[in-house]
Amino acid sequence: MRIDVVTIFPGYFDALELSLLGKAKQRGLIDVRVHDLRDATHDRHRTVDDTPAGGGAGMVMKPEPWGEALDGILDEGEGSDPLIIFPSPAGEVFTQGMARELAHEEHLVFGCGRYEGIDQRVFDEYAERGRVRLVSIGDYVLNGGEVATIAMIEAIGRLLPGVVGNPESLVEESHEEDGLLEYPSYTKPSEWRGRPVPPVLLSGNHAAVEAWRREQRIERTRRVRPELLPRELRGESRGRHAAD
Ligand code: 6GU
User: Fold this and answer.
1) How many CA atoms lie within 13 A of 116 on its CB side?
2) Does ligand 1 come within 6 angstroms of the Cβ of 111?
3) Which of 18, 23, 15 is nearest to 162 (CA)?
């Protein structure tokens, strides 16, 4: 997958060199290219923003540098039909489902604006010429799209074939398969600070372990994210729990 990122803070994306994503990059599974929006300015101060038309607080990102930066990327990746994503708290909410969908794209372009926003004509221009989506990573406000973009690239990147060593580890996660949250995990020692590993996990009874894990997933989901519970599991509570 090819990913271009346009930002005034390229340094944020150094984080993509780390861990699994860094290895995926080295192995050529993900080709991430980060572009400094200021390279598409032509004044001495490399200006990317200006006061809002109509007045008001804050600054708005000027359209010209965005036009030049995005045209450059689109011209270079000729015929790749990229999807342009503008991270924005005003966008549709990013989910595991959207990550799965975007993992099938050949070419993603992320345009990171500051939160006061990018001149609307930039969205309009590229929506008319191709595919554009405004995407939020949740109901809170960040200072800019960079951290949101890193989150999305990580969520999408780990779904690409070969990025995660054992694809089985992708299956039993929160928000995958049946929409339930994941079960709690334990490892050795079997007792730590007086806290035992639940005995069923040491029983060797695979069916009992599976049943326990499913029950834990259901109860955890009911407790912290009841809106995620599948319809058939709603209503029937299974009693009190320590963390309730
Ligand atoms: Cl994508 N951008 C900004 N600036 N804030 C956000 C966001 C995105 N998603 C949630 N908050």
Assistant:
1) 14
2) no
3) 23
Which structure tokens are listed for 109? 């372009």
90 CB less than 6 Å from ligand 1?
A: no
Helix intervals (H) in the chain: 19-26, 63-76, 96-102, 120-129, 146-157, 206-224
Q: Over the stretch 102-150, which tens digit does the pLDDT of each residue have?
A: 999 999 999 999 858 999 999 999 999 999 999 999 999 999 999 999 9
Residue 115 marked as a ligand binder? no
CA of 24 to the centre of ligand 1 (A): 26
Is 152 touching ligand 1 by the criterion CB < 6 Å?
no
Read off the DSSP letter of residue 50: E
Burial (CB count <10 Å: 0-12, 13-18, 19+), residue 125: middle
pLDDT per position as a tens digit, 90-99: 999 999 999 9
What is the model's pTM?
A: 0.93
